[in-house]
């Protein structure tokens, strides 16, 4: 911890101003929903002298929930030009972490998301800020986290890989590496960056269109799309949506249900922490396969228990257990591993446009879920979980068939793993020792 003191400072700053704010916002809005809908009703009545109909209220509420997604999408679209022009101080976690800690540090993204969810649920309780008079204050708390990040980021070092690859600043790269990783010998990390620089020689930062056309990144791109979309369509939002109904059916008092839901957030938070500590001991691919496989099984069982919950008195209790089990599996598997894997699939020149596409799909998917999900639940009821099972099944098959293990591998080694998928057997497999010219000639075939 002392050795990587500056690195952990960056992780905290990025987490507090970024993924923590996201998790807090999507969690807090659920607890403030009753008061916000009441505010909409009162405002509508004051302006139009009539009560708002249910359909209009659902549409307005869905629009409010989706507003954060639209803002995130616009921010993602502008991220490439802004980061290229002004630099990426303390940015992509995968670039500022040594190879042996890459999975652990990338997983911190999910840890801060779940921490935000947990604190959003806690502050949303009626004993704190979840009241009719204080809910506006609850919705503004994320501004404090953003201010902390804004003030502290200028004092943190930039990414060594960014300094070397994009700016050609070898001295600055070594200085940043010592600040981030300590003064011990880091020649292995420097050599890895130099190999990537040699392989990417005369290669400028890709645009989105160039990424889409690059055959050498075709299957990495496909897997990124599949895994990114599946994370949104895994059913986690449906689980949280149905939790209140399940707990009520199980006989819990209405006033106690928010505290039980807080237990869900606690489980997800500690599951993500556990994932961060064991991701380097076990492979990323294994986490995804076991995680999605168990999630399919739990969703199938949950669909059954929810359908039969009024026929057997003990069935709702089974649903409660399955909901907690799903949260634990999700937090300890796909939620913690997906983004670290995606960041490891791309080289420095292609990582920014790839993550821009991935995050654009993430925000667009979140917006779509916010707008459409209430209507899906209304029409499909508990069978909406079957839709999510379909998406997870497609992702499981794709990961099993096409995703190699990325643990303890350099970016160029991972790229070589995909070579036979992108070019077929007709082209000789590229390894880390192949000259870049051979790869370029092969890519032009």
TrEMBL record:
Ranges where the Major facilitator superfamily (MFS) profile domain occurs: 1-407
Membrane topology according to the record: Multi-pass membrane protein
Localization, UniProt: Membrane
TM helices/strands, residue ranges: 7-34, 59-82, 103-122, 134-156, 221-244, 256-279, 286-308, 314-342, 354-374, 380-403
Keywords on record: Membrane, Transmembrane, Transmembrane helix
GO cellular component: plasma membrane
Principal location: membrane
InterPro entries from the UniProt entry: GLUT, MFS_dom, MFS_sugar_transport-like, MFS_trans_sf, Sugar/inositol_transpt
MF-aspect GO terms: D-glucose transmembrane transporter activity
Pfam annotation, one family: Sugar_tr
SUPFAM superfamilies documented for this protein: MFS general substrate transporter
Keyword Plastid: no
GO BP of this protein: D-glucose import; dehydroascorbic acid transport
The protein, known as: Major facilitator superfamily (MFS) profile domain-containing protein
Species name: Alligator mississippiensis
